[in-house]
Write a structure and sequence with these properties.
This protein is globular. It contains 12 helices and 11 strands. It has a 7-stranded mixed β-sheet. It has a 4-stranded antiparallel β-sheet with strand order 8-9-11-10, covered by helices on one side. It has 2 domains: about 5-230, 3-Layer(aba) Sandwich (Rossmann fold); about 235-335, Aspartate Aminotransferase, domain 1, CATH 3.90.1150. Helix content is about 30%, strand content about 15%. By secondary structure, it is α/β, with parallel strands linked by helices. The two termini are about 15 Å apart. The chain has helices at about 5-10, 35-40, 95, 115-130, 175-185, 195-200, 235-245, 270-280, 320-330, 345-355, 355-365, 370-390, and strands spanning about 20-25, 45-55, 70, 80, 100-105, 135, 205, 250-255, 265, 285-295, 300-310.
Length: about 400
């Protein structure tokens, strides 16, 4: 039972008699697939007065990074307040003035740079600043609650694609992240909750029933609703932390043409059989590769690439492949692609990956970088983080 199902089973007690706003997207549905918008609109004693939208919009009607204004929703007649007009991504006092509480029902995918968790944290800050309650309806982490992987986030690299200083794969639900934001002190700065607001702000998390930490999405019995234009299924959820970082710099591309988003990889200049040979030689645990064809390239030749299969979920280290792709880019390309980045590309790499030291090492050493040493360090940091984050766990 998702948070919205538990809320309904409890007679909507947490929202009854309150004027509420709803921050949601297409994956905000109950276990029967009914939109949370419709559930709350029809709930007895509940006053849904406004909707709030983040990146991609309420109905996935906008492409990634497309800004959009406040507008009337033609389906419900409700005002939809835009919380995605970068650099403004936090609700204003005017946008919150007509509600008593903001309900959040968004499906996260368990990876730090996916912006819905940042949007949730920004919503917490705005509600706390304006004396509004925030109610988070919890949902599964599709990767489960035991996978933790990748580098932590440098303090000075916090941004809308990294509002939490957690490993890249964080192992928490959105409700548990909300608890972390409310209870864990953090240094002042961007997307930080001041100590005074943490103490006075009102957060309510409606937990799921029946979910345990070892469950990945395929074991929940739930239908996966696309969370954004390129995350259409659980396969893409698994691929996002595997290939997204490794394709920011250099010639590697996630997908094969427009097919296999995040699960396929291809290179602009290096043949697939060469990439396949290099990857197989790494013998990364839990992974295997098969060649696939995509749509024809501009030169008329068929596009080819590799599909990344997870052969052993327990052995699989979700983020490791990215960093070997970085090292391979240095080996297979004529020049070190990390050596002379433009300011914009440097910023993109840093805010997503989260490590200035790694970028410096790649730029200086190229294919000689000791990637095993980096991975070993991050695994130890992830182990410590996971032990410390247990105090925010709602589920076992």
């Amino acid at each position: 039972m998702l948070g919205i199902d538990v809320l309904e089973a409890d007679g909507f007690a947490a929202v009854k008699g309150k004027r509420i706003g709803l921050l949601t997207h297409p994956a905000g549905v109950n276990r029967r697939g009914i939109s949370t918008v419709e559930v709350l609109r029809k709930a007895p004693g509940v006053k849904l007065v406004a909707l709030y939208a983040v990146e991609h919009g309420i109905y996935n009607e906008f492409a990634a990074e497309v800004r959009f204004p406040d507008r009337i929703d033609p389906r419900t007649g409700l005002m939809v307040y835009s919380l995605y007009n970068p650099p403004v991504t936090k609700a204003t006092a005017a946008q919150l003035k007509d509600i008593d509480a903001l309900v959040v029902d968004m499906q996260d995918i368990g990876t730090r740079s996916y912006t819905f968790i940042s949007a949730m944290k920004q919503a917490m800050i705005a509600c706390f600043e304006n004396n509004k309650e925030i109610i988070v309806l919890d949902r599964p982490n599709p990767l489960g609650g035991l996978k933790v992987s990748g580098p932590p986030l440098d303090a000075d690299l916090k941004s809308y694609v990294g509002a939490f200083r957690v490993p890249y794969v964080h192992g928490l639900t959105i409700g548990e992240l909300a608890r972390m934001a409310k209870e864990a002190p953090e240094a002042p700065g961007i997307i930080a909750i001041p100590e005074k607001l943490r103490a006075s702000g009102k957060l309510t998390v409606i937990p799921m029933r029946g979910w345990t930490r070892g469950m990945r999405w395929s074991e929940t019995g739930l239908t996966f609703i696309p969370t954004s234009t390129r995350i259409q299924d659980f396969a893409a959820v698994m691929g996002y932390p595997m290939t997204g970082l490794g394709c920011i710099v250099g010639g590697f591309r996630t997908g094969v043409g427009v097919q296999y988003p995040f699960r396929g990889i291809s290179h602009l200049d290096v043949k697939s059989e060469v990439v396949e040979k290099e990857l197989k030689a790494l013998n990364l645990p839990g992974l295997r590769y098969r060649r696939v064809a995509g749509p024809p390239q501009k030169n008329g030749q068929p596009g080819t690439g590799l599909y990344i299969e997870v052969s052993d979920y327990d052995e699989w280290q979700p983020c490791d492949l990215n960093f070997w792709l970085m090292k391979l880019a240095c080996k297979l390309e004529p020049k070190n692609p990390f050596a002379n980045l433009t300011p914009a590309k440097r910023r993109e790499f840093l805010v997503h990956v989260g490590s200035t030291a790694l970028l410096a090492d790649l730029a200086a050493k190229g294919s000689r970088v000791d990637m095993n040493a980096w991975l070993k360090t991050w695994r130890e940091q992830a182990r410590i983080y996971q032990e410390q984050s247990r105090r925010f766990w709602i589920y076992r």
